[in-house]
Amino acid sequence: MSAERTVAIAGGGAARRLRALRRRSLWGLFRRSRPGMVGAVLVAIVAGVALAAPWITLRDPLALNPAVRLRAPAGAYWFGTDDFGRDLFSRVVYGSRVSLEIGTLVVLASGALGILAGIAAGYFRLADAVIMRMVDALLAIPPALLAIALMAVLGARVSNVVVALTIAYVPQLTRVVRSQVLVLRETMFAEAARSSGASDRRIAFLHVLPNAWSVVMIQSTVTFADAVLTEAGLSYLGVGEPPGVPSWGNILSDGRNYMVQAPWMTLFPGFAIVVCVLGLNLLGDGLRDVLDPRFREW
Amino acid sequence: MARFIVRRLVSVVPVLLLVAVFAFFLVHLTPGDPAAYMLGPLATPAQIDHLREALNLNVSLPIQFERWFLGALQGNLGESLFMSIPVPLAIWQRTEPTFLLTLMAVAIEVLIGVSAGVVAATRRNTWVDQLAIAFTSLGLSIPSFWLGLNLIFFFGVNLRVLPVAGYVPLGVSWIGAIRSLLMPACALGFISSALVARMTRASMLEVLSQDFVRTARAKGVAERGVIWRHALRNAILPVITVVGNSFAILLGGLVVTEQVFAIPGVGLLVIHAVLHRDYPVIQGVLLYIVTLYVFINVGMDIVYALVDPRIKFG
């Protein structure tokens, strides 16, 4: 990885060629990882559905139509209807938007906070003591329980779900980043930058962070999967998004009273969650195969 | 050895202390007056004043914390606002099903995880290996409540072999208790088995390539004996730590699973507390579960050290 930087001084053209080569070889490695490819396809499907939601659904996910309540999947209603006669296909499709939006925001927020806290902890002894004690304490609380307790005080709102999940998942990222920083700050290229007079902050963000990026990517993918899963659990329990929001957990929660009459109400949102989370987890496995040299089998 | 145990126990103190601080400040994260927020819009000013008094909200924050914390150290976590009984009593009344459920779930987790891991390792890089690991990894991606609902639908409603929901106390019938917890324990055990399976596989692969395994084979031990007696015994050690860590998934999943199966345990208690804004109970359960989780992991570390003579105690 440090070779790339050395060449960058030699000449722009060579560096560009080397980067392209490296990217292609990483892609080549990734393509050979079966879990990674399956995961990427699943995630692409869910993301595609979320983006294309208005064009692939025929009805408003919130529109009530008591005349067609609890219809089995058939004809115009691919996934059937729920107890208010809402189109379940529309609701599940729009549910992917809710899940992916929340997941993305949680990953961005916990990523930013985790990187900053991890770098601070890796570089300053005082910050390390304070931050890592807090991280240890937060890690001692099961994330799902922590999120539930936070939702109890914050109140059921989409933005609060993001806040609660961010607090629940930021400690893991912080710890991962810190451990990377501790290793990377002692490497030759960090030493070289230091001896040429670069400040700690410059080394941390320009030399250490880019090399910790792969680990951040792997952890973020796993966090994304966990966040989607926990978010579904929160809204299933009635402490996540307010009722009516077409999130997968809410649809499942509506459906549990109709398990016998209308099993499709729980079947389809459940499958959607599994496809999305499984895709993210497999993608994480594939990224780990490619990016984490400890697990790479040549 | 004694020094190791003492040091490990001492390391727990700052963690529990910080979690206590967190639990205390949780109440103060509420928008506006916590007392008014807890009692809802229908409360009279007199009721709010009364609660403010009961929760020590009228004194300064450090003194509030001091009073609450000294109380908590003596096991006084306040009174449930909704049930009007002391919080420790409320938790104690709900402990039996939760304890039994956790125990059964761990047993199932280890059973699924270790056997899948061993099978995967012995048939390395075949479709059996991939299937075993994929199966347990599926557990990481299935919402425990959805798995629970499907189990209820299949075994409870269609086949009618297990009770659909609820809990039969041990005092009434221990068979009934186990039957009522079998489905939730399977759901919980399955979702947390993936980490155990992966660790077992990795550890087994390492052990299987060692000399003593070759010696065992050379002196004519049957392959089954080599794998399950010689190799697994040496490979199981790192798995112990993973089982300890997996309690984070188990104890967190408990809340949702108990709700799905209507099991009157600590998880259901916390859900009711959340829906009724019963903060003393939320604080109490939070401290209770974190304490359990932390000490389970300390226990696992000590077991690990006791079982493996190669670990040096410094």
From TrEMBL, chain B:
One of its GO terms (molecular function) is dipeptide transmembrane transporter activity. Residues 95-304 form the ABC transmembrane type-1 domain. It is found in: Cell membrane. InterPro entries: BPD_transp_1_N, MetI-like, MetI-like_sf. Its main location: membrane. The keyword Glycoprotein does not apply. It is a multi-pass membrane protein. This is ABC transporter permease. It comes from Candidatus Segetimicrobium genomatis.
